[in-house]
Amino acid sequence: MLVRALYWLLRLVVLPLWAPIRASRRRVAPGAFIHLEVAGPVVDIAPRPRLWEMRGKRPLCLHTFGALTAAIAADTRPRGLLITMKSFGGGMASAAAMREAIALLVAAGKEVVVHLPTGGGNKELYVAAAASRLLIGPQSTLAPVGFVYNTHYLKGALDKLGVRADVLSRGAYKSAGETFSRESMSEPQREQLGALLDALYGALTRSIAAGRKISEEQAKALIDAAPMRANAAIAAGLIDGAAYEDEVPALLGSRDRPATLIGAGDYLSRRRARLMPRVRRRGVIAVLRLHGAIVDGAPGILGGRVAAAEPVIAQVRALRSARRVRGVVLHIDSPGGSALASDRMFHELVQLAREKPLVACMSNVAASGGYYVAAAAHAIVAQPTTVTGSIGVVAARPVFEPLLKRLGIATETLQRGANAGLFAAGKELSIPEHAALDREIGDVYDGFVDAVATGRNKPRTEIEAVAQGRVWTGSDAHARGLVDTLGGLDAAIDAVCKRLSTPVSGLDVIAHRPGHAHLPPLPLPAGAPRQAAWVRALLGVLDLDSELLSLSSGTERVLAWSPVAARLRD
User: Fold this and answer.
1) From CA 479, how far away is CA 88, in angstroms rounded?
2) DSSP 522
3) How far, in Å, CA of 41 to CA of 92, rounded?
4) What burial letters (b/e) apply to 2-37, b meaning 16+ CB within 10 Å?
5) Pick from 342, 233, 323: which is nearest to 281 by CA?
6) CA atoms of 117 and 141, how far apart (whole Å)
7) Any bridge partners for residue 426, and if so which?
8) Cα 563 → chain centroid
9) Residue-wise pLDDT tens digits, 349-381
10) Measured between alpha carbons, how far is 124 from 518 in angstroms, rounded to an integer?
């Protein structure tokens, strides 16, 4: 407080000199384009950078992008926005949020030009199609080829090795473990995967059709004709022209003068600049990020992003007690994980929701345990392309006894207690042990369904009908009452403000940190880095889920996990 008081007094002293300087910095040449480069990770919201992060490259923050487009729409001076999109490092839900902001800016009468200097795929064109003009690098390739999902089934190979996977689950659509226990895809898995791919393909098709002003059948034909080089994409009407990056200003300008480009960060900082600091600090809407696999601690043998229960619970309690925090947005990008950790987080979030408005915002994925924690919120917001649902549980464990017998290794077991061998690694479960584990899974599933029914204020039978481990898109979840509103982070913030009866302009929106921890790397003997790389390469070739293996190799025996959501995340 003392620092702010001194700063305020200093500004009073220098205000007569500072005002004209600030005013000159706020000037934007009429007809200029605001320029934004998109290359790499894209996130809904990011915390303010620490001092040592100031010089590093930061991800594109969609919340800031929304503020940028809103500022351009309200400003009569700039002609529009130029986006140089080299890559889009986010999922389809993030792409939907960016596309929506571009469409709103075009509807406001501003010109939006997207330049793809290195070409692009599904997500790049899905976003870019909302612009008023599309440009591409002359020698690049446009590849909106559609969506594919590959799964390898290892049961045949494991049988030859003498290894078996015990997989128990609740929910006909709970597919985690199929990779190890089946030789082919189950019909429920084929059904839900087909529905998800139909939704993503439909979103891409409609985006191209609306943006290029063609029919959906024509858009599908263009997707089937991809990939195509720049000239072919222009001839097909997908792209308006070709140019290298240094040629774009001339294309956007007049005959004798190229267009003026102003950096997006510089422009937005000018628009946000205040001549006088606020004397009183405003209330805050805190964005609590729950990203990655949900775990109790940090178990696992492979690297990966996780949301550990203890840090998340500590953050929830801190937000409950913080006076400045008026409401909370729970931002979820998780395919689930530990059922126990999910329940503990759910409990703490319920306590928070009793004191302050809490709205869940689903990003690319909020499935299984990710949906479990969302159910604690007063309202749930998701993008149409969000992958969610998967209300179900699963337990998986490897059985090595057949392999040991084949190798001539005899095993003698002594135990006291009917279920004493339940947690013995690689051991065949006895009938009582199998029944005990199956009973535990049933109890966890019932608790999951009950929590969702309570959180959503719906009869258990209604939740049971859309549970069974079935994965839904955000649109389908909305139609079935699992989601309240279709939209992104801004819609979630608006929902909090409505509960507070306070305009968004009267509150600050801050990303709460820290957001996640990291699993420890694979423990290997000293001098064996090639083995770690070999293991990761093998997982990539087999299309196995390293996060699931990390969870199942730790202390978790019952998981609220969705491998479909995990693999469709990006």
Assistant:
1) 29
2) P
3) 13
4) eeeeeeeeeeeeeeeeeeeeeeeeeebeeebbbbbb
5) 323
6) 9
7) 399
8) 15
9) 999 999 999 999 999 999 999 999 999 999 999
10) 29
Query: What are the backbone angles phi and psi of residue 519, rounded to the nearest 5°?
Result: -65, 150
Residue type, 168: L
The tokens describing 183, both together, are 């030789």
453 φ, ψ to 5°?
-60, -40
The pLDDT tens digits for 110-134 are 999 999 999 999 999 999 999 999 9
Q: Which residue has the tokens 């609306």?
A: 210
Provide the β-strand partners of residue 82.
Answer: 35, 113
**Cβ-based neighbour number of residue 537 at 10 Å:** 10
CA dihedral 413, 419, 420, 423 (to 10 degrees): 100
Which tokens belong to 241? Answer: 């022209």
SS3 69: helix
Residue with token string 């913030």 = 493
| CA 243/CA 212 separation, integer angstroms | 19
Structure tokens belonging to residue 217:
């059948």
For residue 242, which phi and psi values (nearest 5 degrees)? -120, 140
CA-CA distance, 552 to 547, in Å (whole number)? 9
Residue 212 tokens, joined: 């290029």
Per-residue pLDDT tens for 488-497? 999 999 999 9
- Mapping DSSP onto H, E and C, the string for 461-490 reads HHHHHHCCCCEEEHHHHHHCCCCCEECCHH
In contact, 220 and 205? CB cutoff 8 Å: yes
Which of these, 386, 389, 393, lies nearest to 363 by C-alpha position?
A: 386
Contact call for residues 85 and 246 (beta carbons, < 8 A): no
User: pTM for the complete prediction?
Assistant: 0.85
